[in-house]
Structures are given as C-alpha cells and as structure tokens.
Design a protein that fits this description.
Largest sheet: 3 strands, antiparallel
Distance between the termini: 36 Å
Number of helices: 2
Low-confidence stretches: 101-105
Number of strands: 5
Strand order of the largest sheet: 1-2-3
Radius of gyration: 14 Å
Order of helices and strands: EEEHEEH
Mean pLDDT: 78
Shape: globular
C-alpha cells in the first residue's frame, strides 16, 4: 500500500496544520485495480463518518471524463475534473444516491 499525508503534498497540505498527518492519498491493489482512500477533515462535505470516498482508475483521460460525467449526473460536483500533480484527470462528486440520502436533492 502506498500512502501520502497532507503534510507530504507539494502544495502545502491540509488547510489546518493539525491535520498534516492525516492521509491525503492511500492506494492498494484489489483484484488488479487501484483502490484509493483518504482521510476527511473539516473541509469535507460531511462531518464525521457519514460515508466514504471511492476513486475509479481509468485507462485514459477520455475514459475518466466519461466515467466522471456518468457518476456526477444527477448529483453534485465538488471538484471539477482537471489535471492535478498526481493525475492527468481527477475530480470529485457526490453521486445522485448520496445526495438523495442526504436530502440534498
């Protein structure tokens, strides 16, 4: 498993210095696919454990955009898909099911 804390990120890390030791990016292989995890903080869309984050690893930027569009349809984009220092295409969204459960829609 590979891990990077917020304090290890090149952009300065977490907005709160007390959170620098939390995991920003964790990766493990499951059936040949990457399973990505991260800790949450006060900037997250929810407080406490009220759900989880899943990252989908795609073979191309085009496929990443297609998957992101499908997952975010009917939901809420929290970070538009774009190039980052760790990936050519990364974005975050709440899918329509999370929003429906949370009462956002």
């Amino acid at each position: 498993m590979a891990m990077m804390t917020f304090g290890e990120m090149p952009d300065g890390g977490a907005p709160d210095p007390a959170l620098q030791d939390r995991i920003a990016h964790g990766r493990n292989k499951v059936h040949g696919r990457d399973l990505m995890v991260s800790d949450t903080g006060p900037w997250s869309p929810h407080q406490g454990f009220a759900g989880f984050n899943v990252q989908v690893d795609c073979d191309s930027v085009s496929k990443a955009h297609d998957v992101f569009a499908a997952l975010s349809e009917g939901g809420q984009i929290t970070m538009p898909i774009a190039e980052t220092f760790w990936a050519p295409a990364f974005g975050m969204c709440r899918d329509q099911f999370w929003c429906a459960v949370d009462g956002q829609l």
